[in-house]
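Hi all, posting the design record for the shared folder.

TITLE: backbone redesign
STEP: 1 of 1
STRUCTURE INPUT:
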């Protein structure tokens, strides 16, 4: 394989990882919105999106393994591939957390709140402000 093809494969991996990050960000925001607004339909959508995130992570991992096996990258390229693998795992875990929030929302959306949701949206705003 030519170096230009290899470089294109690395760029594709990075683009797929960025797309996964965008989806995880969107899903996390939706999970918090579903919890705050007690929106069961949005919570179900978040749960469905977790399968998409899981599939993206599996695809990324397969592409990385294939690249490692066929190209045997060294130095910076190897670090890039390994970073994609690790970041994919972490993003998938974050998607699982969003799914967990959505499941809590579904279990509790018909129940009255013990107290108003003030701190959770404030923490979300602080955490997602720089994202």
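Okay, here is what came back for every position:
SEQUENCE:
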């Amino acid at each position: 394989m030519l170096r230009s093809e290899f470089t294109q494969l690395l760029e594709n991996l990075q683009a797929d990882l960025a797309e996964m990050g965008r989806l995880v960000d969107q899903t996390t925001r939706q999970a918090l919105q579903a919890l705050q607004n007690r929106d069961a339909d949005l919570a179900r959508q978040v749960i469905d999106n977790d399968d998409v995130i899981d599939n993206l992570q599996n695809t990324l991992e397969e592409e990385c393994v294939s690249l490692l096996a066929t190209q045997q990258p060294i130095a910076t390229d190897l670090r890039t591939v390994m970073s994609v693998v690790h970041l994919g795992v972490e993003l998938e875990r974050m998607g699982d957390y969003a799914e967990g929030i959505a499941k809590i929302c579904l279990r509790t959306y018909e129940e009255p709140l013990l107290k108003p949701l003030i701190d959770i949206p404030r923490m979300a705003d602080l955490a997602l402000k720089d994202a």
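COMMENT: The domain at 3-129 is CATH 1.20.58.220 (Methane Monooxygenase Hydroxylase; Chain G, domain 1).
Let me know if anyone wants the other runs.
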